[in-house]
């Protein structure tokens, strides 16, 4: 892995609050060259308080260069860890939370595969969702970490999205599943971003949602 490296991923922990979990890495603790992981501390209360990780070098054989960073249960979080040969930086949602200078030089060479969704084999597996794992052979700068977050954030917000109505040209669902129709004199502003104009006798209706089972979790 050398002395210049970055890893980024989206993670959403959804269960097993009493467990320690590997997220992405090359082995459990100092058996690997680097890892991202999350502890069990305070997870039962809804916000885990010990997200972290680090690299392993000759100078510093302990993996947890960054720790005690918060990670909310059941919510997506963007994690990036970078190492430039002398400093490790740890980001969540483009904010730097830790900068460690405990390590220097090349990371440990280990006969281990890359693990996604576990610490090592079946040891401390992740309970939840992971997406968009990136590995770089260089240390990303803070502006690059922010750019990745901004670029990918909009697509991560589609998790659980039932329908999306831009209301630019019609009452249709942009996802194509729950299309509607205009009733009365609804006027649409096109792609200029002005949306739709409604009068007291005009509206959109979506018959596809008749008898829909809305359940107990919902946002509009």
Q: Would you kindly provide a written description of the structure presented here, covering whatever features stand out?
A:
The radius of gyration is 22 Å and the shape is elongated. The chain has one helix and 14 strands, in the order E-E-E-E-E-E-E-E-E-E-H-E-E-E-E. The protein is 7% helix and 34% strand. The mean pLDDT is 92. It is mainly beta and 220 residues long. The chain has a five-stranded antiparallel β-sheet, with helices on one face. Strands 5-4-3-2-9 form a five-stranded antiparallel β-sheet, with no helix packed on it. A hairpin with a 4-residue loop joins strand 6 and strand 7 (88-92).
Please write out the topology.
Elements: E1 5-13, E2 21-25, E3 34-38, E4 47-55, E5 66-72, E6 77-83, E7 88-92, E8 95-100, E9 115-116, E10 128-136, H1 142-156, E11 181-183, E12 187-188, E13 196-197, E14 203-205
Antiparallel strand pairs: 1-6, 1-10, 2-3, 2-9, 3-4, 4-5, 6-7, 7-8, 11-14, 12-13
């Amino acid at each position: 892995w050398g002395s210049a490296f970055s890893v980024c991923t989206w993670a959403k922990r959804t269960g097993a609050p009493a467990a320690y979990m590997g997220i992405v890495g090359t082995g459990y603790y100092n058996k690997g060259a680097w890892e991202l992981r999350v502890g069990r501390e305070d997870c039962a209360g809804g916000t885990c308080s010990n997200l972290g990780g680090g690299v392993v070098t000759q100078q510093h054989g302990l993996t947890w260069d960054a720790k005690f960073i918060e990670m909310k249960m059941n919510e997506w979080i963007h994690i990036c860890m970078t190492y430039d040969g002398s400093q490790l930086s740890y980001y969540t949602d483009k904010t730097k939370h830790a900068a460690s200078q405990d390590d220097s030089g090349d990371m440990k060479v280990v006969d281990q595969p890359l693990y996604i969704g576990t610490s090592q084999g079946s040891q401390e597996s992740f309970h939840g969702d992971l997406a968009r794992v990136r590995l770089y052979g260089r240390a990303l700068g803070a502006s690059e970490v922010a750019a990745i977050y901004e670029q990918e954030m909009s697509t991560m917000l589609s998790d659980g999205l039932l329908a999306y109505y831009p209301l630019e040209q019609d009452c249709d669902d942009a996802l194509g599943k729950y299309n509607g129709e205009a009733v009365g004199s609804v006027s649409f502003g096109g792609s200029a971003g002005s949306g739709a104009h409604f009068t007291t006798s005009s509206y959109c209706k979506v018959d596809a949602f008749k008898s829909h089972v809305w359940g107990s979790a919902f946002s509009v």
